[in-house]
Amino acid sequence: MRITMIGTGYVGLVSGACFSEFGAEVICVDVDSAKIDRLNRGEIPIFETGLDNLVTRNHKEGRLLFQTDTAAAVGSSDVVFIAVGTPERRGDGAADLQYVFQAARDVARGIKKFTVVVTKSTVPVGTGQEVARIIRTENPDADFEMASNPEFLREGAAIEDFMQPDRVVIGVESERAKQVLRNLYQPLYRIETPILFTNIATAELTKYAANAFLATKITFINQIANLCEAVGADVHHVAKGMGLDRRIGSPFLQPGPGYGGSCFPKDTQALAKTARNHGQPVGIVEQVIEANQQQKTRMVGKISAALAGQVAGKRLAILGLTFKPNTDDLRDAPALTILPALLQQGAIIRAYDPEGMREAAKLLPGVELVAEPYEACKHADAVIILTEWNQFRNLQLDRLKELMTPQADGRFCFCDLRNIYEPALMKEQGFNYICVGR
Ligand code: UGA
Q1: From CA 74, how far away is CA 39, in angstroms rounded?
Q2: Quick check: CB of 256 below 6 Å from ligand 1?
Q3: Which of 264, 375, 384, 391 could form a disulfide with 215 if both were Cys (CB 3.0 to 4.6 A apart)?
Q4: Percent of residues, the chain, with pLDDT higher than 90
């Protein structure tokens, strides 16, 4: 089977590489010729565990090609995936579909034989229909069927999520398209992955509903964490007590500084917008969006309170900048709200992140980026963990105390916004230990 994958961003590159690993011949196309050149030289533009090996091997073996000519690639393909970006449109929170529609026009020019055209980007309900309309208008003779196959992979675990997914959702409206996609996902049938066939609108909405639900789950536990602080409860025990109920489940009940990333913030906004447009507002999601923003801001107050309300002139060591570990992605990371607010209050910030430094240099002016964590902690009035990278889980506490400046009460200020340390142990070690909901 031959596949064209349009867009070599996160979803496109990972999916393209994984389909080639399944044995399909995949052509990844992108309008960014510099990116295609880099990929052809074996350079991987994103940090994702295991991706470089997968790309290099399949590229070498001729199953994974990179080029800029979409129409040529489409002409020789059985399935075309549209996996371009759908950023948040400025102002109204809707998904910006200009790249999807441009891809649809390119596909229309290229179709030469029966082709299944699949949206893989996260697109609002109705987009599949619109893409089909564009293709039909641009090329009335095109022999194609539309489908929707949203992607549920997580950054940092993308390959595993693709190869061993909890489920695959496929929206189709013809038996022909269903057969082609069933064949494509044959390798997953063998490991008994549930494959859900539905109509296109349902597949499109399922993706938004899943992300919005996960964002709600996180926000729920964040609000419970805030309440725990007020009543002297421990949110980890609350989360455990809730999560052991199989109807609730324990994943995504980890409190923190608020969710970020390229998906939850954008997708919750887009779902809220779609729902309002259809006169069926999803108030709960609107509240989640608002509460998540407040959670980020709340962290600024927490840090300030830990420093007796005096942030101006204080030296802060920030460990972790990316929106979560094992990625170099800073999109909508809590760091982008928290650090500028602290700078605004006069803090002097040194920061370290294992993979996010290149992005941070662009996005966080005024923050001094240093080469390793202990460098950031030199003379620091407070150490603040913003992302739970493994290497921050076992910091040498004695070394930290030698490097840091003690506060007026003789203690060392340590704000662990990902709750990776034990409060009792940190207290015993002489830290004023601040965390979330414990
Ligand atoms: C998310 C979904 O988990 C994927 O299923 C989906 O495919 C993807 O969006 C997408 O739509 O493309 P991702 O954004 O990579 O994946 O990251 P997550 O692991 O879901 O984390 C998102 C944010 O939530 C992070 O900032 C993380 O720190 C935060 N989070 C997550 C918590 O604060 N608590 C938790 O318990 C879990």
Answers
A1: 19
A2: yes
A3: 264
A4: 95
Nearest to 24 by CA among 71, 75, 78: 78
Per residue in 329-372, pLDDT (tens digit) is 999 999 999 999 999 999 999 999 999 999 999 999 999 999 99
The rounded distance, in Å, linking the Cα atoms of 418 and 255 is 7
Distance 241 CA to ligand 1 centre (A): 22
As beta bridge partners, residue 318 has 351, 384
Query: Do the domains 244-434 and 2-198 match in fold?
Result: yes
The closest residue, in CA terms, to atom 3 on ligand 1 is 154
Q: For the chain, what is the radius of gyration of the CA atoms?
A: 24
Confidence category of residue 263, pLDDT binned at 50, 70, 90:
very high
User: Is the pLDDT reported for residue 90 higher than 90?
Assistant: no
| DSSP reduced 3-state for 378 | coil
Domain coordinates of the chain in residue numbers? 2-198, 244-434
The yes/no answer on whether domain 244-434 falls in CATH 3.80.30.20 is no
- Report long-range pairs for 304-307 (Cβ below 8 Å, ≥24 apart): 304/345, 305/434, 306/382, 306/413, 306/415, 306/432, 306/434, 307/381, 307/382, 307/407, 307/413
CA of 175 to the centre of ligand 1 (A): 34
Could you say which of 263, 377, 413, 415 is catalytic? 263
| Confidence check: pLDDT of 89 > 90 | no
Q: CA–CA separation, 232 vs 234, rounded Å?
A: 7
Q: Whose CA is nearest to atom 31 of ligand 1?
A: 252
User: Of all atoms in ligand 1, which is nearest to the CA of residue 207?
Assistant: 11
Query: What amino acid is encoded at 28 in this protein?
Result: C
Alpha-carbon distance 322 to 353, whole Å? 7
Provide, for the chain, the percentages of residues in helix, strand and coil under a 3-state DSSP scheme, each rounded to the nearest 5: 45, 15, 40
324 pocket-lining for ligand 1 (C-beta < 6 Å): yes
Nearest CA to ligand 1 atom 6: 152
Q: How many residues does the chain have?
A: 438
- Ligand 1 close to Cβ of residue 356 (< 6 A): no
**Into which CATH architecture does domain 2-198 fall?**
3-Layer(aba) Sandwich (3.40)
Write out pLDDT tens, residues 371-409: 999 999 999 999 999 999 999 999 999 999 999 999 999
Q: Is 435 considered catalytic here?
A: no
Q: Of 211, 216, 236, which is best to mutate to test ligand 1, by the most ligand atoms within 8 angstroms of its C-beta?
A: 211
Residue 72, pLDDT score: 96
- Band of residue 189 on the pLDDT scale cut at 50, 70, 90: confident
